[in-house]
Design goal:
Keywords: Coiled coil. By secondary structure, the protein is α+β, with helices and mostly antiparallel strands. The chain has eleven helices and 23 strands.
Length: 420
């Protein structure tokens, strides 16, 4: 029986069969522990120069391989790893598996991060960085937890098998992937620029410091309660599995929009039905950590949703454009107001309904509200289109990695042939 008859992948000229599949003849299969190691050089912050960056999980960008910020003062744990420029930093916890950084400087990091050190004689550190970004690596890391903590376990991951091309081909692959990284980086920068422009526009348009063409006259100052026909908390409910109706939880709007992957489910009842949300309703976080207090999300008609406890629902009246009101509540001056009046406990802050109703809002006539909302909506649409382009570029990169890191497609610059 031939390989094809047996359902086994054919081996074309210049390739060989391995446990990882068919790979080029000059490639090898190696275990991660044979080509890299954790730099397990523990230090305490007090023993490090104050200008040395201390990296925690929140400092590493999600999925973009960039360092967002870091300060030594925030690294207060007694045990930390030292790392050096060229090391590959990788988040170990379940929700941080796609946080990674190819270090461009020396520093220290918490033990929730692995500083991986490449064996330079076998693997280029940039190629190792590509490996840890691959879906296959992340999937393996997500199921390699030890028995005590939800962390990726090195005792398991050091046996992760890798297809390893010669160094010159590794570097050619890295160069090809870096071109896509450049596109993603450019889109990141453009998105941040557009967001900054939008924030500036909100500050100007929502306060009346700048008026749109065709509008004049004085604005009124109204309270939030004047704009709403209903402000209320959600219903308590009997939790259900996914066969119930989707209902909001406090984390449903944690990203500033309605995230249906973070809803709960409730058993349907007449009481729950009375809390069905309408398009244009605004969800407001009035019980949360101080950093998240005052976050809002606008309900659309994409999917039915019901209003659960620990978020307020604000429904605007006929003389208020709901999208304009959403932008007002999402503005810096609104969030700052919420933080200033929130009552803080040990782990959370809160604002009551009575206080929220007194929030003072510079209020234009309804036609001007509608025009302002349209301008800001257009900006949001432009940002969303750029985010879709960025996501597509990331998907293209993952597809390239799947092919290039396994040798299924080879670059012309290394004189290889393709199995495709």
């Amino acid at each position: 029986m031939t390989d094809r008859q047996a359902g086994v992948e054919d081996v074309p000229p210049g390739y060989k069969r391995t446990d990882l599949g068919v790979i080029p003849d000059e490639w090898e299969t190696k275990r991660l522990g044979n080509i890299a190691a954790i730099r397990n050089q523990k230090v305490v912050p007090s023993s490090v120069d104050p200008d040395t960056p201390c990296v925690q999980l929140e400092h590493i960008g999600q999925g973009n391989g960039r360092l967002l910020e870091c300060t030594t003062a925030r690294c207060s744990t007694s045990s930390n790893y030292r790392f050096f420029a060229g090391n590959v930093l990788f988040g170990r916890l379940r929700s941080y598996l796609r946080k990674f950084w190819h270090a461009d400087r020396d520093g220290i990091c918490t033990t929730e991060i692995w500083p991986l050190v490449a064996d330079a004689a076998q693997v280029d550190s940039a190629f190792l960085f590509a490996i840890v970004q691959s879906d296959r690596f992340v999937e393996a890391a997500s199921i390699s937890y030890g028995t005590h903590m939800p962390r990726t376990d090195w005792d398991i991951m050091q046996n992760f098998e890798i297809c390893l091309p010669p160094l010159h081909e590794q570097r050619a692959i890295v160069t090809a992937l870096s071109d896509v990284d450049g596109l993603i980086g450019a889109l990141d920068a453009l998105i941040e620029k557009k967001r900054a422009i939008k924030q500036a526009a909100m500050q100007q348009l929502l306060t009346g410091k700048k008026r749109l063409p065709g509008f004049a006259g004085e604005w009124e100052t109204k309270q939030l309660g004047d704009h709403a026909t209903l402000i209320r908390n959600g219903t308590t409910y009997v939790a259900s599995l996914r066969d119930g109706v989707p209902i909001t939880r406090i984390e449903t709007i944690s990203s500033g929009f309605v995230d249906f992957s973070k809803v709960g489910y409730a058993k349907y009842s007449k009481v729950v039905e009375s809390y069905k949300l309408q398009p244009g309703d605004i969800l407001y976080s009035h019980i949360n950590s101080i950093d998240h207090i005052g976050k809002v999300a606008l309900v659309s008609d994409v999917q039915e949703l019901y209003h659960g406890m620990n978020l307020l629902m604000i429904r605007s009246g006929n003389n208020t454009n709901s999208k304009w009101l959403f932008y007002v509540l999402n503005s810096d001056f609104s969030r700052n107001w919420a933080r200033s009046i929130a009552k803080q406990a040990v782990s959370q802050a809160s604002i009551n309904t009575k206080e929220i109703k007194t929030f003072s809002i510079p209020t234009p006539p309804l036609p001007e509200q509608t025009a302002i909302a349209a301008v800001l909506s257009d900006m949001d649409a432009e940002i969303a289109a750029l985010e879709r382009r960025r996501e597509k570029a990331k998907q293209i990169k993952q597809g390239m990695m799947q092919q290039l890191l396994t040798g299924r497609i080879r670059l012309p610059s290394v004189g290889g042939v393709s199995t495709q």
